[in-house]
Amino acid sequence: MKPIFLEKDTKVGENSFYTRYAEVPHTYNQFHFHKEYELLYNIENSGTRFIGDSIRRFSNHDLVLVGPKIPHYWHSDDQYFMGDPTIKARVVLVQFVANFLGDEFLKAPEMALIRNLLDRAIQGIQIRGDEARTIGEKLYQVTQLSGWKKVMVLIEALCLMSEAKDFILLASRGFCESHKVGNEERISSIFNHIIKNHHRDYKLEEAAELANMNPSAFCRYIKKTTSKTYSEILNEIRIGFACKMLINTEDSISQVAYTCGYQNVPYFNRQFRSIKDKTPMEYRMNYKVR
What percent of the chain has pLDDT over 90? Predict the structure, then answer.
């Protein structure tokens, strides 16, 4: 079997680290990884985020730290691909190696929390809530500064991340220890096709045909690549879109279920609770009281 993910070069090069602020039509790339840590702060953007075997919705002020060698990509929602010049994704990107300040810096006792942060980043870390906005503003400042000020503000942002209380780890430990490297085009095309067609009765056989495999081989490939079954991936993507509808619309639960590709509302409710640990109504009410 061909390896799954490809390593890509970054623009860190001879610099200590690489930063970029961008206003682009959308974020859309392929599953890839690199040797650097990556901080991505979506100031304005929404879509589906893939970090290892983690598949989650993201929206404005989404802040994630991804460790070295962890496959990842962000796929913006459809409205970002419509050519509307008033709709843009605004993102901040920072890439750095662990020893960007020298081999001895992180060994200092005062850097214990940052060392712990970087260790946890092997699974990908999402910082949430007000802490994400505060740290994201610091990262934006990094892109606007130069010289020692740029370095100092990045260190400050990493310190704030290391002390953050509202965070979750994204990829499973098992995935991070076992994923293969190589050609990412096949798995990326599968995920992108599921995103595009999640709203209809998207059969396993259709996905297998896209990958030029028979269904049995396709199921083995998906399980080996992602540590999840095809059904689990499809449900996670659909439930992610359902969460967006529950927050942003007043559509009934049944309408949300049908729009996201479920023909059976009780089955939708079971899948939603399994993935989100609450019912669709509870999820919606949680956002209404915020």
Answer: 47
Higher pLDDT, 214 or 6: 214
Q: Which domains does the chain have, with CATH numbers?
A: 6-174 (2.60.120.280), 198-288 (1.10.10.60)
Dist CA 71 CA 51 (whole Å): 6
Q: What is the pLDDT of residue 11?
A: 57
Q: What is the mean pLDDT of residues 103-130?
A: 91
Angle 33-37-43 (CA atoms, 0-180°, nearest 5)?
95
Q: Which of the pair, 142 or 180, is modelled with greater confidence?
A: 142
The count of other CB atoms within 10 Å of the CB of residue 70 is: 23
Q: How many CA atoms lie within 13 A of 212 on its CB side?
A: 3
Per-residue confidence band for 190, with pLDDT thresholds at 50, 70 and 90 = confident
**3-class SS string, the chain:** CCCCCEECCCCCCCCCEEEEEEEECCCECCCEECCCEEEEEEEECCEEEEECCEEEEECCCEEEEECCCCCEEEEECHHHHCCCCCCCEEEEEEEECCCCCCCCHHHCHHHHHHHHHHHHHHHCEEECHHHHHHHHHHHHHHHHCCHHHHHHHHHHHHHHHHHCCCEEECCCHHHHHHCCCCCCHHHHHHHHHHHHHCCCCCCHHHHHHHCCCCHHHHHHHHHHHHCCCHHHHHHHHHHHHHHHHHHHCCCCHHHHHHHCCCCCHHHHHHHHHHHHCCCHHHHHHHHHCC
**Contacts for 107 with CB less than 8 Å, ≥ 6 apart:** none
Give yes or no for a contact between 69 and 33, defined as CB atoms under 8 angstroms apart: yes
